[in-house]
Amino acid sequence: MLTGTYRDEGVYQNLSNEAYHGDTNSISRSGIMTFLESPYRYWAKYLNPQRPKDEPTPAMVFGSAFHCLMLEPDKYGDLFVTRPEKVLLKNVGREAYDLNEARIEAVNQNLGKKTILTWEQTNLLLQMQATLFINKQAMELIKGAIYEQSYFWEDKSSGLMVKARPDILHANMIVDLKTCADASPRAFQRAMVSGGYHLQGAMIQDAVQKLEGRWIPNVINIAIEKTYPYSIGIYVIDEDALEAGRVKYKSALLDIKSYIGDNEPWPDYEPQTISLPSWA
User: Fold this and answer.
1) Can you give the CATH number for the domain in which 243 is found?
2) 219 is in which domain, residue-wise?
3) Which of 167, 171, 197, 205 is 20 to 30 Å apart from 277, CA to CA?
4) How many domains does the chain have?
């Protein structure tokens, strides 16, 4: 088994996002995708005892903020804060200047406690939220569900602990909310493959079946663009894609298991011959 922070098999209803990602003993969809890219990269990111702290990218921070705003708005103020823009004394006067400085200092006091967003990020979040609110189909998929519930379970074939955290869970469907640059069908198809969304759907299906004894047949992704006019795409991942994702993630777990405990270095990119792509 992997070593590190450990959480028992089960369903966790109120686990924070930080605690979920902090469990280093279990393997998520993103971990599997990293392994499929390169076993060495997986070892370097998750297992190397000398690895640097894994800092979230700006895109990850923004995505987390949007998920929280849409799905857990009661927690948003506890986790995120907007830094006021700097103003000039000559432009606003002493009273407004001092008030703004006090607000900036209050935000600085929250360093390490809350994630700080810019005004531009916050305005973008609110514009995207407003666009989702007026999309009836999307809101029907979002409302009245269980949000951000965490699953930890042991994969039977490999014996490894696995984890998944569906954004939105209904009795008959799994829904994931994705922020993206392009929500068109062709772009989403590429993102599904490169991001492993079909693996993620299959993992959640398997988690719910094992831990709750029920099968959820429908896996749906809501993709919303991060630029005006914030177009929205709603995509049902078909059974063939989900089954391909299931085969792929289970095969990857077996491969990860075979490397654990082996004294040999985890392999990196394979030597290969490179030719010109078709577009060149």
Assistant:
1) 3.90.320.10
2) 10-53+134-259
3) 197
4) 1
Q: What is the pLDDT of residues 197-224, one digit of tens each?
A: 999 999 999 999 999 999 999 999 999 9
Torsion angles phi and psi, residue 208, rounded to 5: -65, -40
Domain-embedded: residue 266: no
**Alpha carbon separation from 83 to 67, 133, 237 (Å, rounded):** 20, 25, 39
Report whether pLDDT(230) > 80: yes
pTM listed for this prediction: 0.87
Closest by CA to 228, choosing from 274, 161, 183, 173, is 183
Closest CA to 151 of 139, 137, 160, 161: 161
Average pLDDT over residues 257-263: 88
Tell me whether the omega of the peptide bond preceding residue 229 falls within 30 degrees of 0, making it cis: yes
Which tokens go with 161? 């602990």
